[in-house]
Amino acid sequence: MKFSDNFDNVIKSLYRLYSLAYNDQLTGAPNRQKLKDDFNDLAQKVKNDKIRGIIALFDVDHFKQVNDTYGHNVGDIVLCRLVERIECEPSFSGHLYRLGGDEFVFLFSDPKSKFISDEECREYYREVLSLALLDYTLPEIDLSCTVSIGVSLFPEQGSTLSEVLRRADIALYRAKEAGRNRIVFFEECDN
């Protein structure tokens, strides 16, 4: 065996280990660990007041019903199609993570100077996230899926991932209470 062949095998093995550690095995989307690492990479910029961003937590509305009615294999297909559809939208490129089950997160960050006001920031992200609110359908199955999204801003609503995720989760719950297939920002919640 040549040195170059051995080196190629080592590289392939390292890539596979990286993929196993940072990517969801079903959908191929980056996973919770990758989200933690990416958020922590932003921590210093947040501390230095250079960036602001959002965590947008979302899941598939009535996903349990999909699994119960059509089986987990169809549920898996719905999740994979959802990820494929989102990854085709340039606005979401590099910002999607799967937490587990049907729960996903968008992580966005921008320089603070990009937005004149908090309202401008919210409206910008609301417009971007509205692209994820389309119905997702599967051929030959009477099934249409929507998503609900809860959003939390950082550093305004937390400086750690757990704080921001907790507030996004509260907003997601409110989106579901309000009828699903909508976006709710944390500050819109009656805490």
Task: Draw up the topology in text.
Blueprint: H1 3-22, H2 32-47, E1 51-60, H3 63-70, H4 72-87, E2 96-100, E3 103-111, H5 118-130, E4 136-137, E5 144-145, E6 147-154, H6 161-177, E7 183-185
Parallel strand pairs: 6-7
Antiparallel strand pairs: 1-3, 1-6, 2-3, 4-5
Helix pairs in contact: 3-4
Care to describe what's here?
- The chain is α+β, with helices and mostly antiparallel strands.
- It has a single domain (26-188), classed as 2-Layer Sandwich (Alpha-Beta Plaits).
- Helix content is 47%, strand content 20%.
- The protein is built from 6 helices and 7 strands, in the order H-H-E-H-H-E-E-H-E-E-E-H-E.
- A 5-stranded mixed beta sheet has the order 2-3-1-6-7, sandwiched between helices. Strands 4-5 form a two-stranded antiparallel ribbon.
- A hairpin with a 6-residue loop joins strand 4 and strand 5 (144-145).
- Helix 3 packs across helix 4 (72-87).
- The longest helix is centred in the N-terminal third of the chain and has 20 residues, at 3-22.
- It is flat and about 60 Å long.
- The model has no long low-confidence stretch (mean pLDDT 89).
- Which residue ranges are poorly predicted, with pLDDT under 50 across at least 5 consecutive positions? none
Principal-axes shape call: flat
Q: State the CATH topology.
A: Alpha-Beta Plaits
Distance between the first and last residues' Cα: 65 Å
SS elements, strand count: 7
Q: Specify the CATH homologous superfamily.
A: Reverse transcriptase/Diguanylate cyclase domain
Q: How many helical stretches? A: 6
Average residue-wise pLDDT: 89
Note the run of SSEs as H and E. HHEHHEEHEEEHE
Q: Which secondary-structure class do the elements indicate?
A: alpha+beta
Tell me the major beta sheet.
5 strands, mixed
The CATH architecture designation is 2-Layer Sandwich
Q: Approximately what portion of the residues adopt beta-strand conformation?
A: 15-25%
Taking all Cα atoms into account, the compactness measure Rg is 18 Å
CATH class: Alpha Beta
Number of separate domains: 1
Portion of residues within helices: 40-55%
- Oligomeric form: single chain
Order of strands side by side in the largest beta sheet?
A: 2-3-1-6-7
